[in-house]
């Protein structure tokens, strides 16, 4: 950035701070000593979304956020988590480095994250995105979730903080009907 007063090509940074989604730098011209401010902002290349009917439209974070908000409405989630989710997904999309991405890829990213965040939000989003044909398809999805919830909660709630080798021992001693062992 050339000095706006004398046009000199070099300046030193005397202060820099993050503002919103960019960095504000206070600079001093190495030639005339004038001070000026620059803002640096990441400018991602445009990303297009290919919709189901093959139409393309520019990726819109607000649209993504609106969909997430709707799915997470009135759920007991930490403040700011929905925005963070949108940020994460947006960042991942740009990291892919593609010019075009299908809505299916974005949908899957959302589903994956909602699944580990909140099952009700997940089902809400899935019911719109997957367009469950009937209640059976919806029930199948819910059954899968319930299944994963049960298998995920069993080991931690029943056998807290035991290393794997102890787990085997414990199971054996339980089977033999002995006492829990010394620990
Ligand atoms: Zn200058």
Task: Tell me about this structure.
- With 183 residues, this protein is an alpha+beta fold.
- The protein is built from six helices and six strands, in the order E-E-E-E-E-H-H-E-H-H-H-H.
- The strands form two sheets. It has a three-stranded antiparallel β-sheet with strand order 1-2-3, with no helix packed on it. It has a three-stranded mixed β-sheet with strand order 5-4-6.
- Zinc ion is lined by residues 3, 5-6, 8, 29, 31-32, 34.
List descriptors.
183 residues; alpha+beta; 3-stranded antiparallel β-sheet; 6 strands; disordered C terminus
Unique ligands? zinc ion
Please give the alpha-carbon distance between the first and last residues: 67 Å
Query: Based on CA inertia axes, which overall geometry fits?
Result: elongated
Strand portion: 15-25%
| SSE sequence, one letter per element | EEEEEHHEHHHH
Oligomer: single chain
Strand order of the largest sheet: 1-2-3
Question: Helix share of residues?
Answer: 40-55%
Note poorly predicted spans: 155-168, 177-182
Q: Structural class given helices, strands, pairing?
A: alpha+beta
> So how many helices?
6
């Amino acid at each position: 950035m050339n000095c706006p007063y004398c046009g000199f090509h070099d300046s030193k940074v005397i202060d820099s701070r993050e503002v919103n989604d960019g960095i504000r730098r206070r600079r001093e011209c190495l030639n005339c000593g004038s001070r000026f401010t620059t803002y640096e902002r990441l400018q991602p290349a445009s990303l297009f979304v290919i919709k189901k009917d093959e139409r393309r439209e520019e990726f819109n974070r607000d649209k993504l956020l609106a969909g997430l908000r709707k799915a997470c409405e009135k759920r007991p989630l930490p403040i700011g988590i929905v925005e963070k989710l949108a940020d994460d997904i947006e960042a991942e999309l740009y990291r892919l480095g593609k010019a075009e991405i299908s809505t299916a890829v974005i949908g899957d990213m959302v589903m994956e994250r909602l699944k580990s965040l909140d099952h009700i939000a997940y089902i809400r989003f899935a019911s719109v995105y997957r367009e469950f044909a009937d209640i059976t398809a919806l029930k199948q999805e819910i059954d899968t979730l319930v299944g994963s919830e049960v298998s995920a909660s069993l080991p931690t709630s029943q056998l807290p903080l035991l290393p794997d080798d102890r787990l085997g021992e414990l199971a054996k001693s339980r089977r033999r009907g002995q006492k829990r062992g010394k620990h």
